[in-house]
Amino acid sequence: MKIALGLGCDRNTPAITIERCIAQALAACGASLADVWAVASIDLKANETGLLHVIESHAWPCLFYTAAELAAVDVPNPSETVRKYTGTPSVSEAAALLAAGADKSHLLIEKHKLRGLDGRNATVSIARIPT
Asked: Is there a contact between 35 and 128 (Cβ–Cβ < 8 Å)?
C-alpha cells in the first residue's frame, strides 16, 4: 500500500508529539512507516522545526501547499477554526489528498488528533495513493 500523510500542528509542536500522532494514525488503518510515500502540509508550516525534524528523519518527500490550493479540495471535515488561523478549512485532509493525487474516497484516516504532554496539538490524515 502506498499512502500520503497530511500533517497539521500547533506552532512549536515538538517532533515527539507529531511522531506519536503519526504512529497512532498508521496503526488505526493498518499501515506502517514503510507505506508512506509522501507527506504534505500548508506552506505556513514550512519552517516548523518539529514537523521538519520528523520529515527529515524519515527522508520523506514533502510538499507544502498554499491555503488557496488546500481550500479548493473537497474534504469530509472542514473546520471554521482551521480557516480562521490558516485561511483554509482543511490542512491535514486536503494536504493528504493533494499529495496522494486522490479524492476524499481515498482517505483512510480523516483526521487523527493528538494533544501532546506539552499541550500542543498534531493532526494527521492519511490518503491511499491510487495505483
From this structure: no
